[in-house]
């Protein structure tokens, strides 16, 4: 089971002590009081849980960056994305447009087998 040690109160230790702690595995230094490195802890949590954020883009609108669809890094195809939204979406699926690091050009037209990357934007085109 993966774990992360969130070592708090790093604002109250010396640099030498911080360097010693830095050699520990699965460690993330934070200061909750001063809000130091909370973003680093959040990134490490995403990495350890092996999750992927996929953003939706309704036709004719801007992407919705507020409410991503969360997929496991092991199951992150366009088909997995469609099943996560609604079980009948795959039946109506024609193709998808993808923006992001998994696309060769922006947007790229892809099928159900396409593997998505973290923070990709997907627009599903349904059959008429």
Tell me what the structure shows.
This protein has a five-stranded mixed β-sheet. It has four helices and seven strands; from the N terminus they run βαβαββααβββ. The mean pLDDT is 94. Helix content is 25%, strand content 30%. The chain has two domains: 5-49, no CATH class; 51-126, Ubiquitin-like (UB roll), CATH 3.10.20.30. The protein is of the alpha/beta class and 128 residues long.
Task: Give the secondary structure arrangement, pairings included.
Blueprint: E1 5-7, H1 15-22, E2 27-29, H2 38-49, E3 51-56, E4 64-72, H3 78-85, H4 89-92, E5 93-99, E6 108-110, E7 120-126
Parallel strand pairs: 1-2, 3-7
Antiparallel strand pairs: 3-4, 5-6, 5-7
Domain OBG-type G: 1-50
Domain TGS: 50-126
Pfam families: MMR_HSR1_Xtn, TGS
């Amino acid at each position: 089971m993966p774990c992360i040690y969130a070592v708090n109160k790093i604002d109250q230790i010396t640099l030498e002590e911080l360097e010693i702690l830095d050699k520990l595995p699965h460690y993330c230094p934070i200061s909750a009081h001063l809000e130091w490195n909370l973003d680093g802890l959040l990134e490490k949590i995403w990495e350890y849980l092996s999750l992927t954020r996929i953003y939706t883009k309704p036709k004719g609108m801007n992407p919705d960056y507020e409410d991503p669809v969360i997929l496991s890094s092991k199951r992150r195809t366009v088909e997995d994305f469609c099943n996560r939204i609604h079980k009948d979406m795959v039946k109506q699926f024609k193709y998808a447009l993808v923006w992001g690091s998994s696309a060769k050009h922006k947007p790229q037209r892809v099928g159900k087998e396409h593997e998505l990357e973290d923070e990709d934007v997907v627009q599903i085109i349904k059959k008429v």
